[in-house]
Amino acid sequence: MSDNRAEELERLHAQVRACTRCGLHATRTHAVPGTGPCPADVMIVGEAPGFNEDLQGKPFVGAAGQLLDTLLAQIGLSRESVYITNVLKCRPPQNRDPMPHEAEACAPYLKRQLELVRPKVVLVLGRHALERLLPGLGSITRLHGTFVERGELAYVPLYHPAAALHNGALVGDLQRDFDRVRTYLDRVLKPPEPEPAPAPAEPPAEQLKLL
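The structure assignment produced for this chain is given below.
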């Protein structure tokens, strides 16, 4: 089943690369569908590709991606072990904020990625990803590092690594929040305790012989 999902995800990536649902296709160099294994326990959703991502067709390959790699390594994860994508699959011109109609055009792709990857945890990077995945819950400043559970899936809003590059005070928050993610993963991925072996049957008591 996982092989079938991985193949379907590759087909979805091909659809993203050929997508013309909004005007961003006219200004992109490459669409950026996402990278990583399928299934994956951890899925990371950012806001939109930037300059380097547009050139390479891969998410988080610039300076923000290097910080993300460092944060993942801090909790024993690597880029190869998580699935990474963005709300928008194409770079907005001059890295402007995503427009609502652009996010709406990409929404079916993100929804299908969640269905195929089946993560245990989704790391929601930045306010635009937060508004798309958890609308109306509050600001990233208030929610960062919290766990919002939806059934068996937990969403964790986090500051975007790019924001931490502009404001170094956020790096400590990111590090602490990633540590919380590790603690949560250790709990939900812990193998179930083996059932205790049944107690041996008591030998039948010897019946007293009547004299």
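Interim note for the steering committee: The chain has a mean pLDDT of 93. Residues 2-188 form a domain with the Uracil-DNA Glycosylase, subunit E fold (CATH 3.40.470.10).
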